[in-house]
Specification:
2 copies of one chain form a homodimer. Chain A is of the alpha/beta class. Chain A has 13 helices and 20 strands. At the A-B interface, loops of A face loops of B.
Chain lengths: 512, 512
């Protein structure tokens, strides 16, 4: 009898008696903290998100569990740090890794995903957009608790030649519905694509269907228009002051507005917790084709604030009072813990969870002291507690990559902080006060009383964390061209199957 | 017969028949664009300003006329660029200058100040806080149209020894009421001072008195707690996540709330235009003792966006619809033009005005295409038109000053942009698209079609401006220790007179 079944025997009756709320998580891709009007984007082009903030609660101190996509998303859906759920690499020290289509690994069966848990309480779950937890079929969403899927296992990169590399498939549930650049078009020259409109339509249809059925639902809207290559539909192209990136933001903002409106129109808004956030910081290396991290240092791929501070808004009319700011240090992993609680469930007790229950924050705006851990691959790079952050390691990227033009901190240079070597500060961590210094520019020197006073608590948190840590089996070490999306399930019907090359395992190369 | 008298003969009858609105301009000192929650300050500690924004109109593209205090304030009160009203120096090329207490110059009699104009329409005007348009008595506010004054002619620097340098006087109307650090205390060790509370109280009393008298009023609330040395009253000390700077911001935010509440309580809010802004960008060189310019480059003293982009909010219940964003390029000088219009007056026709009338922006949210000129001393350094900005000259500060530790762009370095030499780009200006690139990091190269397409319009604006420009007599060239605040009017009664040293004129030294 599986864990899930045991839990269900105990809880399903209790839960069925309650009025379980619906959940909508709208997770952006590479959107930065500073990309929303309400978070200070100077062109102020996100009226729907700004309204969502006015109607709900914003979290200016909310983090993703990682500064790169796959580990961040795996952490959200498992409630556990990538170092525990296996979404990291040991090929090199402190390297970011993710799930390109030649990755062998993916989300381990041992991990219990949010929709698997919610199923115990009778939820129907749908993912729309990017999965990124493994492209091999046994890793797919429908094998890990989701009931429906419209979207792709990997990023919408391409177009590929379908010879050396196959174009990425788009799935409708368990089977492919076509491929990017073939059946789902993205014009890389103009940036035109209808994908966001399709994702909006899929969301509205799912919500309508669930509202009619009275079955509680979890919608995971994992759209990707702000990830390279950027796209927007014709009606949004050229409408932003910010170029194509802003067009994409505007269309996603419109989508958020449509989803919230649908909840209201169907009279289920009062019974639906809606969350907006992003998977990691803006890709500053993409220059004007990337987003903004506002006043924060650097961006995606780094453990500075720009890497993982996320623009997070929660709306739940009648439950979460409007116009609030929460100073709680939050994490995307908290959504797992919180939604489990709201669904009347308890966390499995056989493993460590890194998220905290945010219900009292949402309902009473309370604050719990908790640490935020900043990992890069297999290394704990930094820790935050209260307003203080200690950098145990610093690294932007290698000089070799930097000289190739890859710059994670364009225009920014802080001595001893934005280092191009991996610098070990564990014996004397760099201390920053993020309240006075959100840009991480002014290191508090070790001889200062403030350093002496604050560092023990930070170091105690690190010691406790490390003592209890049993790293999961790393999933992102091995690559193989044969595991790419050559012949996805359902390819036969569409005549889209391609013969894979012979299998040849090799260690993936992670330059950052 | 003076110009003012002629205008009055024509207009006073017309105006008396109308219902002229009251004006409150709340001008902060060295507060940055990024210091307000509504403009993205991550600690979100300005609930009253955020509410003012929700109830009114925000201007994310609003500028001061200069990146330093005195010229910015002179421009606001005259509606004209410092190069016209004399608030600049020709001692060196492109140098910032202001009015320390040894300055000989001040606001010329030839300039017509906003309260002088408003007097024609029967207004009573009060300045509370920092004047900064000349400390010699003939330059004082009551000689230039204000009816009341509580505050100081210079910055609240000190304490001085009253031997080599006198402490700055605080005036109650035409006479001094005491001196900083003697009668008006600022504890530089703790940062404690009741000055902001006094400035709030003065404002509330003036508003009450005017409301009772039914005489229209102009209140210029020029508070200075966010200018070095920072201060806050006991009840606000230690309350901010941002340190003393944040404590000062919180107290000013409270003050804004008190003023707006008073207008509402007295039932005159619907007949009062309230404006919040700042005199220049945050003093980034002050490090964690300075404010934030959000995503913008550098700060005070520079012609990058951080130098003069101001956090501007307008509230006028019943006239300006709530919750609006205006994308109009605005300037503090526009307040002159706009308030003149709203008071039923016309601009004097014998001089050039640089402000535009914002009434249709306020009432219909329309946009007029207009340039923004970025001056540093006697040099036009940059120009903005639409989303484009052209740098004609670039300069942060000299390497000599930089090596002394004065850094206007801490942690920021953009090749060819943040130059430590004065670089002349007039033959091939640096083009920036501020919509895509608010941080001024990505220069659009001259061979790009966008450069070829956009530059002519920017250069045409510059040519037109320069052709019509007749610089005013520079007021900020000469210094003399004998003109300092030794024996301010009223000093006898307080036994606060000090004998001045012999007069000795010398050219002021402006290092930046």
């Amino acid at each position: 009898m599986s864990y899930i079944t045991i839990v269900c025997v105990i809880l399903c009756f209790v839960v069925a008696a309650g009025n379980t709320p619906n959940f909508v998580i709208m997770l952006m891709d590479d959107m930065g903290w500073g990309d929303l009007g309400v978070f200070g984007e100077p062109n102020k082009e996100t009226p729907n998100l700004d309204k969502m903030a006015a109607d709900g609660m914003i979290f200016p101190n909310f983090y993703s569990a990682n500064a790169i996509c796959s580990p961040s998303r795996a952490a959200l859906l498992t409630g556990r740090l990538p170092i525990r759920n296996g979404f990291y690499t040991t090929n090199n020290h402190a390297r970011n890794s993710y799930t390109p289509q030649n990755i062998v690994g993916g989300i381990p069966d041992y991990e219990i995903l949010l929709p698997e848990m919610l199923k115990i309480s009778g939820y129907r779950s749908k993912i729309i957009g990017k999965w990124h937890l493994g492209q091999q079929p046994h890793y797919h969403p429908l094998k890990h608790g989701f009931d429906e899927w419209f979207g792709a296992p990997n990023c919408h990169l391409g177009p590929y030649d379908d010879k050396k590399t196959p174009n990425i498939p788009v799935y409708k549930n368990a089977n492919m519905a076509g491929r990017y650049y073939e059946d789902f078009l993205i014009d890389k020259k103009t940036g035109e694509s209808n994908l966001t409109q399709m994702y909006i339509e899929e969301a509205l249809t799912f919500i309508e269907k669930q509202a009619a059925s009275h079955q509680p639902f979890f919608l995971y809207w994992a759209v990707d228009a702000t990830h390279d290559p950027l796209y927007a539909s014709k009606q949004f192209l050229g409408t932003s002051h910010r170029g194509l990136y802003g067009d994409a933001v505007r269309e996603l903002d419109y989508g958020v507005g449509q989803i919230l409106k649908k909840l209201k129109d169907l009279d289920i808004a009062n019974n639906t917790l809606a969350v907006f956030s992003s998977d990691n910081g803006a890709a500053t290396y993409a220059k004007t084709a990337g987003g903004s991290n506002g006043p924060f240092l650097c961006g995606k791929q780094t453990t500075y604030e720009g890497g993982s501070r996320e623009p997070t808004i929660v709306k739940w009319p009648g439950k979460v009072a409007p116009g609030q700011v929460s100073h709680q240090l939050g994490s995307l992993m908290d959504l797992f813990t919180t939604l489990i609680k709201l669904a009347g469930l308890s966390l499995p007790s056989d493993r460590i969870y890194d998220g905290i229950d945010l219900t009292s924050t949402l309902f009473q705006n309370t604050i719990v002291k908790r640490p935020i851990f900043y990992y890069r691959g297999n290394e704990l790079m930094a820790v935050r507690l209260g307003d203080y952050k200690a950098h145990l390691w610093t690294w932007t990227n290698s000089l070799e990559e930097y000289h190739k033009g890859v710059d994670f901190c364009p225009g920014e240079f802080i001595v001893n902080v934005t280092t191009h070597e991996q610098v070990n500060h564990t014996s004397m961590p760099l201390l920053i006060h993020l309240g006075r210094d959100p840009g991480e520019k002014y290191i508090i020197r070790p001889h200062k009383p403030e350093y002496v006073q604050q560092m023990p608590a930070l170091m105690a948190v690190v010691a406790k964390h490390k003592a209890a840590l049993k790293p999961g089996e790393p999933q992102l070490n091995w690559c193989d061209q044969s595991v790419m999306n050559w012949s996805p399930p359902g390819c036969e019907k569409l005549n889209k199957c391609i013969d894979p090359p012979p299998s040849k395992l090799y260690k993936c190369v992670w330059p950052h």
